[in-house]
Amino acid sequence: MKKEKTIYWISTILIFLFEGVMPALTSQTEMAKEGIRHLGYPEYFGVALTVFKVVGSIILIVPQFPAALKRFAYAGFVYDFVFASISHMVIDGPGMSSVFPFIVLAVLAVSYFYFQKLATAAVPK
Description:
By secondary structure, this protein is mostly helical. The protein has one domain. Helices cover about 85% and strands about 0% of the residues. It has 5 helices and no strands. The longest helix has 27 residues, at about 95-120. It is elongated and about 50 Å long. The two termini are about 15 Å apart.
């Protein structure tokens, strides 16, 4: 189980850094605000998205949160990445900005897979 825990924590920490720390530190920069405007969203949407990303990433990284709540956070991030990709595809066309969310989604999938694997292993038989 040590290998599984290591993979889980590395992938979960990457999600925490990408979706919790980075948005918290950069969401109020002019570049971030322009990115939201460029996609056609109002400025308050960027603020709300940042709050949900930070809260969701904290839920994933803190072991004391219940598994059911973690599953909601995982689901929220899936929606976030899929719709980010769609938004970039519609506005900018195919390119790295529409592919990158799926790369992060793959990291999230690894985190979720190992979260499930560790949760199943922890259940007494």
